[in-house]
Design goal:
Length: about 160
């Protein structure tokens, strides 16, 4: 591990981790995520086998476009506020203390929406697969992990500009 990424301790104050705002999706798919902030706690603690993010969704914000992963499991645990989980089966409001899991390879697109009037806070954990593909249920987009980063393209494989 690079010296600059090593941690001298195994704890941190989550608010000391700079948030990533919005999304890396191509336009216009990033717009509903403008009110999302992620704090990469797993990265800050030097974890390499799975990621952990502390996510804040502002009122009206989405966690992502509705998607599913081929190789990576995902898990969320609601800490504050309420989020609406949207899947192929419909919608379910999740409140503090509730959790949801999304097994790798299960073709059931999911995302969270904050339909309330206060911010929602949840933990998100997921596998860090070397190879990955994500399918987006409601839009003409898919993603492949290349050199550790997601590249977004149309479902035909044509890249977005």
């Amino acid at each position: 591990m690079e010296k600059s990424k090593e941690k001298s301790h195994s704890w941190l104050d989550p608010m000391s981790v700079a948030p990533r705002r919005g999304s890396i999706y191509p336009a216009p798919f990033a717009d509903p995520l403008a009110g999302r902030e992620k704090r990469a706690l797993g990265d800050a603690l030097g974890l390499t086998q799975f990621g952990v993010n502390l996510v804040t969704l502002a009122p009206g914000a989405w966690s992502s476009q509705r998607h599913w992963h081929v190789h990576e499991d995902e898990f969320i645990y609601v800490l504050e506020g309420a989020v609406t989980l949207v899947t192929d089966a419909g919608e379910k409001v999740l409140r503090p203390g509730m959790a949801a899991g999304f097994p790798a390879g299960k073709a059931d697109g999911h995302h969270l929406i904050n339909r309330g009037d206060a911010p929602a806070l949840y933990l998100e954990a997921g596998t860090r697969a070397e190879r990955e593909e994500a399918q987006y249920s409601d839009i003409d987009m898919m993603a492949r992990k290349e050199n550790g980063r997601f590249v977004f393209m149309r479902k035909t494989g044509e890249p977005y500009p």
